[in-house]
Each structure stands twice: as C-alpha cells, then as structure tokens.
Design brief:
The chain has helices at 9-31, 49-72, 80-96, 99-114. By secondary structure, the protein is an all-alpha fold. The protein has one domain. The termini are far apart. 7% of the residues are buried.
C-alpha cells in the first residue's frame, strides 16, 4: 500500500471520527461512574459566569474546527450532514452536560492562564 494513503482523507477522517467517538464514549462512561474508583464521597460544584463563558467559548471554537474538518474532508462524501449533526450533538453533550469533560476544559484553561511567558 502506498504511504500517501495514510495521509489521505480516506484514512485520516475515519480515524479522527473514531477518536472523537472514543472520547465521547469514554467521557460518558466516566460520568456514569464506570471508570472511577468507587467512593462514598460526594462532591458538587456550581459553576460561575466566567466558567460558563469559557464553556461557550470552548464550544464555539471546537464546533468551528469540527465542522471545518468535516467540510474539508473528501472521505464519506454523501454522509457529511449526518456526521455533522451527530458530532455537534456529541460536542454539546461534552461541553455543556458532561462534568468530567468540563473539568478537563477548565483545567486546560487554568494551565494556559498560569503559563509563564519566556522571551
């Protein structure tokens, strides 16, 4: 098989979609408690306006990138509408309803804000 095949949309796009589906399933299982250590400890967090603003920004950026990847790929032509709708619903769930994923987003933002710039 030609090495260029591994860089083509026919290989990369399904790989990307599989990775996104894996992330969705992993986050769903983690949220339902299947991938956590069982404990009687219960915690809850009420998010403030700044956190929700960050989630909205994260959703906006991620949805633009996601839709651009889908629209620019030549693979799976004819199925892009259902792929787009499915991916957007999965992204909405991850960003706005999945606590594990939201904690990862907030952690990434905090690490980015605390990064010291060196010149």
């Amino acid at each position: 098989m030609n090495v260029c095949f591994y860089f083509s949309d026919k290989f990369i796009f399904p790989l990307f979609e599989g990775a996104f589906l894996f992330l969705f399933i992993y986050a769903l299982l983690h949220e339902k408690g299947f991938l956590r250590k069982q404990s009687n400890l219960k915690m809850s967090v009420e998010r403030g306006k700044e956190s929700w603003g960050n989630f909205t920004l994260a959703f906006g950026i991620a949805s633009i990138v996601l839709m651009q990847i889908i629209n620019s790929a030549n693979a799976l032509h004819g199925y892009k509408t259902i792929i787009s709708i499915t991916n957007l619903f999965m992204l909405i769930y991850l960003v706005f309803f999945n606590g594990w994923f939201r904690n990862k987003v907030i952690g990434l933002i905090i690490r980015s804000q605390k990064k010291i710039e060196k010149f």
